[in-house]
Amino acid sequence: MQDLRYNNTSKESGGSNDSTNQIFIDSSTWSNFSASGVGTDGPTVASTTAAIEPEVGMAQMPELGLCRRHSQRNPRSCDFCRARKTACRVEDAFYAAMDAVRLPPDTSSNQEDAAVQRPFQSSPSDSPEELFAADWQEKRRPSDGRGDIHGFSQTRSIDLRSSQTSFLLGDTGESDPYLVRSSSLASTGNEDSDAPISYIQIRTQKNWRHGSADTGLDEERPIVFMLIDHSLHGRYEPRVDEDVLQNAHTSLQEMCSDAIGVRLVKLYFRYVYPYWPVLSRSMLFSSESSFASNVASLSLSLKAALYATGLPFMVFDEVLAAQLDLQKLSANNLYRICWLAITHEIHNPHLSTLQSCLLLLQRANDDRYVMDSPFRWSLLAWTISLTQSLGLSTDCSNWLGIPSWEKRLRRRLWWAVFIMDKWSFPSAGLTTHIKREDYDTQPLTAEDFASTAIIEGSPRDLTTGDFTAQHEDSHFYHLVELSRIVSDIHDAFFTIRAANATRHDFSRTIELARPLRSRLQIWKESFNMFISRRQHDTRRHSRLDGNVSLSLAYLVSVMILFRAMLRPLESSAAARGNIQVEERGKVAIRAGAKACCLEVVQFVEQIPRGAWDAFWHSCK
Fold first, then answer.
1. pTM of this prediction?
2. Are strands 3-11 and 18-26 parallel, antiparallel or unpaired?
């Protein structure tokens, strides 16, 4: 879009400084100027204002006290701008007018009429400073906390915007959130707008308490999202050609019809979701009649990933089991389509792109001798970066104006990424990417597992139970808590600096390990209570018990801690300082490590067949 710029310079009366009126006009507005009778010599301030008025529906713009119409070619600044000794900018008045009409909806009369006819209260004796202060206070009036991010009493999803992608503004990015929130730009996020870039500020609830504890969240930090139109990233490379993408759509449809796809997604919710809840039941199961259409509307990457994830459980579906001999589906082909679609969607990512990455990371590895290729760890780093760009590292519990289902989903997705990151280091010996000081997402609560799914016999009734009553009845909750302990073990012993500080210091190692060992024991007691409740609950009894993998994960966590405690015993420096090391402490550490290894072997030998057929996290 071409910009035409005109600088109108005039001499201030009674002053020695020049005042410049700079007007920015795009090509679409220029046509309005021509239709309004503007000559070829260029528009004046009066004609510019007249051209802007029909766009915002403000026929009384001069009454705002922010700009004054003049018929001269080179008008002097208005009273307000002369008082401030600044240039008179018509565009500032334009945005101020837009903010002035942005009111909460009036249920007693037409909303648009009420907004346009809103009077501006002023008196002839008001000074420009008083006028500006009155208008500023009106625009910045605190809300009642029930409005959405646009200032209306409704909620709207940040992610479900078909033509826009949202990115959370960081403090050092190209747009400063502290500056954006102080201008009208922070409230112009509208999918119906023609602006390719807009901003949206999320208001937060003050004095928020997470459960029964203070959150410690920075309530003064501005939460501002940049909304970018998909067309802006349409030329970015590398990307997938449209014909290749269309062929992928066709291939997926040929492999899995819509009817088969719906059944595979239901298998995911029945056998995988209780352990890996990275989708929203409230959205997909909004109604029984719309479930099939909701599945069909999913992105290509997410559909392919869901189909591949549900494929191992086809034998538990009567219809799909009968088709196994007639149509052999390939999980590898589905994952390839998923990856192809991800590389296309990554330029304009949404939560569905992140969900696809998380399901792709859970792909089972059939190689008995190699853990995985470096692709997995690169994809994990990519996923973490995507998570931070979408703003999931910032806690959304106290955000106002977005749907509850989206807040629950965002928090679960963050902790799912956290799990994959923290369990990559013990399985591959790599460092973690997520640092404690880089996120403030609070621990999961019962609300994060709530659902408004209304289909009779939906996954909430079949397998997951009513999480609104007790969130400790969740495999995912216990996995997150165990992953937080594993993260602290890594920070205490397995970073480069931590390893240098502890590998020769037995006393320091024991001091750091003691509280971690205590936390593991507390977690074990809580997990045993969870298993006991499930065994007595016949509604959720299933011969496919994926909780066995979590028991094994606990034993692995204990082994990692013992590996850290064994290091100073074997170092040469510790041997020379053997006088200061209690011999009984060394013996206890070695005996505990040996007992842990024996417990792991015995546990694996006793795993029942049904547990092996259940869903296992690929990181364990």
1. 0.73
2. antiparallel
